[in-house]
């Protein structure tokens, strides 16, 4: 049985949407995050702390209302379940943006071939996603 995070979609001025965790989620979120504090981020190996952690959807929710409307209730439930949430550092969350875990992992593997290219591409990706700030 999937555990579902209580959430609401908040429309941003720029037309973006973000996920806002509901009040009932607090203990659930703490239980999810705490085991990861002090461990390396799965993508960049940066140590995850109380200040840099972020909750990331392995398979992202659509960033628009229209995208959400195209999903079945079952798919929305899967995407918003705790099983689809991973704890990574904030920088990686910004870079990963709407890529799936699989897509971002293979992108990082590709970028490993060229450290200069990796630094430039990840910097650009991070900057293009400033809208997703830590709450
Ligand atoms: Zn990271």
TL;DR?
With 135 residues, this protein is α+β, with helices and mostly antiparallel strands. It has six helices and four strands; from the N terminus they run E-E-H-E-H-H-E-H-H-H. Zinc ion is lined by residues 41, 43-44, 46, 88-89, 91-92.
Question: What features would you highlight for this structure?
Answer:
single chain; 135 residues; alpha+beta; 38% helix; 15% strand; disordered N terminus; binds zinc ion
Number of domains: 1
What is the N-to-C succession of helices and strands?
EEHEHHEHHH
Report the strand count. Answer: 4
Shape: globular
The helix tally amounts to: 6
Level of helix content? 25-40%
Strand order of the largest sheet: 1-2
Give start-end ranges of low-pLDDT stretches.
Answer: 1-12, 14-20
Radius of gyration: 15 Å
The biggest beta sheet reads:
2 strands, antiparallel
Query: What multimeric state do the chains show?
Result: single chain
General description of the model:
This protein has helices at 26-33, 65-69, 73-79, 90-96, 101-111, 115-127, and strands at 7-11, 17-21, 53-57, 85-89. It is an alpha+beta fold and 135 residues long. The protein has one domain (7-127). It is 38% helix and 15% strand. The strands form 2 sheets. A two-stranded antiparallel sheet has the order 1-2. It has a two-stranded antiparallel ribbon with strand order 3-4. It is built from 6 helices and 4 strands; from the N terminus they run E-E-H-E-H-H-E-H-H-H. The two termini are 28 Å apart. The protein is globular. The structure holds zinc ion. Residues 41, 43-44, 46, 88-89, 91-92 line the site of zinc ion (ZN).
């Amino acid at each position: 049985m999937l555990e579902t995070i209580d959430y609401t979609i908040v429309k941003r001025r720029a037309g973006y949407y973000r996920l806002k965790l509901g009040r009932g989620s607090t203990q659930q979120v703490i239980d999810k995050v705490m085991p990861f504090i002090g461990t390396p981020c799965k993508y960049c190996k940066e140590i995850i702390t109380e200040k840099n952690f972020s909750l990331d959807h392995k398979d992202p929710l659509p960033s628009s209302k229209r995208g959400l409307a195209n999903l079945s209730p079952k798919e929305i439930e899967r995407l918003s379940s705790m099983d689809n949430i991973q704890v990574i550092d904030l920088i990686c969350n910004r870079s990963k943006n709407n890529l799936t875990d699989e897509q971002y992992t293979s992108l990082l593997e590709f970028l490993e071939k060229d450290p200069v290219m990796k630094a430039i591409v990840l910097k650009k990706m991070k900057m293009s996603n400033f809208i997703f700030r830590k709450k």
